[in-house]
Design brief:
Blueprint: H1 8-20, E1 42-46, E2 49-52, E3 57-60, H2 75-87, H3 96-108, E4 114-118, H4 121-136, E5 140-144, E6 157-158, E7 168-169, H5 176-179, E8 182-185, H6 190-199, E9 204-209, H7 225-236, E10 239-243, H8 255-260, E11 266-269, E12 280-284, H9 286-289, H10 308-321, H11 326-348, E13 353-357, E14 360-364, H12 373-377, H13 381-393, E15 396-397, E16 406-407, H14 414-431
Parallel strand pairs: 3-15, 5-8, 5-9, 9-10, 10-11
Antiparallel strand pairs: 1-2, 2-3, 4-12, 6-7, 11-12, 13-14, 14-16
């Protein structure tokens, strides 16, 4: 991909990394495969800014894929990590920090009566579904096409040809037997969910859903969707799992469950609760969580779970996010950005569907509303690629894929929003 940016050092680093790491990266979407060209190598982050190894500065809307809700290197988080590291980086034993963070999480998420800290969102989802199966004595799990819940084998599934088709592995190395009990259907499609439950009565352990879909872009739930899932699962005795790894503390301080008024049985949370450090959690109803070892027979463990660095960073993050006015300003700035993008697209004559929920936003280059994975895939990815590079050239760093969310932090102020909208107006005019 031709660009006016000077990226010589990034290209050199990528060439070396490609000899040492698969594809030159440690997570696939970082490789810029969807937009062409080579990835940026980052030297540091500061507030709303990223600085690459070539000295370019960008307003960052990736924010480590969501968890940096306070921006990069927030002083309170840095101080907390430094103080914790001086006392020891890992104990392999309980510490009071786990209790304090659990209390703070529970204050935002009352439905999480009991929780277990783990080390990633993938680990949290895997554990939550194992727990749902243990609690119900059932095997089958329903997920939604385009919903990503980590790279556990049972969830690497593409949708079948029909709503109730058994899943087929979406990656080599995943045995068909592992995904045989994973059922997929379309997001926002309650009729398909009802059909699946009718076809498998008393056999479904859980429905897992991103309550605001963030891994196909940003797709909002239609008004009846989440209440319908709650009704269907409750009637059948299945466990409703909200994967709030992305939406927790992002679409609302209390997650999508607070925003939309739906109480799930289990909730999965991710790296926001660790200030961007590796951490995750799953939790929910006490009667379900009591099955987790050592209080019950469902085994799950982790040497670094609840480690003092992540706990300290999480405590500092949630303190800051709970400060008076912090969330309101964050949501207001995100709304201004989303509205400004819509207006800029209309002025340029470019079809753009902009969605916003709290401090998350997404923009699809499409002339029709996006309500599920099928309609998301109809977006103009070629135009997105041109938009991505035009924005990057003007100092705005967006996720390098049409099908990823954008995020705003408390460090983004009016100046950064206006600079972004100025860049967007120029970029949209260029690709119109």
């Amino acid at each position: 991909m031709t660009t006016t940016l000077k990226l010589d050092k990034s290209r050199a680093y990528f060439a070396e990394a490609s000899r040492l790491l698969p594809g030159g990266v440690d997570s696939p979407v970082r490789a810029f495969t969807s937009v062409g060209g080579d990835p940026l190598f980052i030297e540091r982050g500061e507030g709303p800014w990223l600085f690459d190894v070539d000295g370019n500065r960008y307003v960052d809307y990736v924010l480590s894929w969501g968890p940096l809700v306070l921006g990069h290197a927030h002083p309170a988080v840095v101080d907390a990590i430094r103080a914790a590291a001086e006392r020891g980086t890992s104990f392999g034993a309980p510490s009071p920090l786990e209790i304090e963070l659990a209390r703070r999480v529970q204050a935002f998420f009352p439905s999480v009566e009991v929780m277990r800290f783990v080390n990633s969102g993938t680990e949290a989802v895997m554990s939550a579904l194992r727990l749902a199966r243990a609690f119900t004595g059932r095997d089958r799990v329903v997920k939604f096409s385009g919903g990503y819940h980590g790279h556990a084998d049972l969830l690497l599934v593409q949708a079948g040809s029909g709503a109730a088709t058994l899943g087929l592995p979406d990656s080599p190395g995943v045995p068909r037997a592992v995904t045989a009990d994973t059922l997929s259907c379309g997001y926002n499609d309650l009729a398909a969910v009802r059909s699946i439950f009718a076809a498998h009565p008393g056999k479904i352990a859980a429905v897992i859903v991103e309550p605001v879909a963030g891994n196909m872009g940003v797709v909002l739930p239609e008004p009846e969707f989440l209440p319908g899932l709650r009704e269907i699962t409750r009637a059948d005795g299945a466990v409703l799992v909200f994967d709030e790894v992305m939406t927790g503390f992002r679409v609302h301080p209390g997650g999508a469950q607070a925003k939309y008024g739906i109480v799930p049985d289990l909730t999965v949370l991710g790296k926001v609760i660790g200030g961007g450090l590796p951490v995750g959690a799953y939790g929910g109803r006490r009667d379900i969580m009591k099955l987790v070892a050592p209080s019950g027979p469902m085994y799950q463990a982790g040497t670094l779970s609840g480690n003092p660095l992540a706990m300290s960073a999480g405590i500092a993050t949630l303190k800051e996010l709970g400060a008076p006015g912090a969330w309101e300003r964050l949501e207001q700035h995100t709304a201004q950005l989303a509205q400004g993008l819509s207006e800029a697209a209309r002025s340029a004559g470019v079809p753009l569907q902009v969605a916003q929920a709290g401090s998350m936003f997404g923009a699809f280059f499409s002339s029709r509303p996006v309500r599920d994975w099928e309609s998301a895939k109809g977006s103009d990815t070629g135009r997105f690629t041109r938009w991505f590079w035009k924005m990057l050239e003007q100092g705005v760093y967006l996720a390098p894929s049409q099908f990823e969310a954008g995020f705003v932090s408390t460090a983004h102020g009016p100046a950064e929003i206006e600079a972004t909208l100025k860049a967007a107006r120029a970029a949209l005019a260029a690709i119109a």
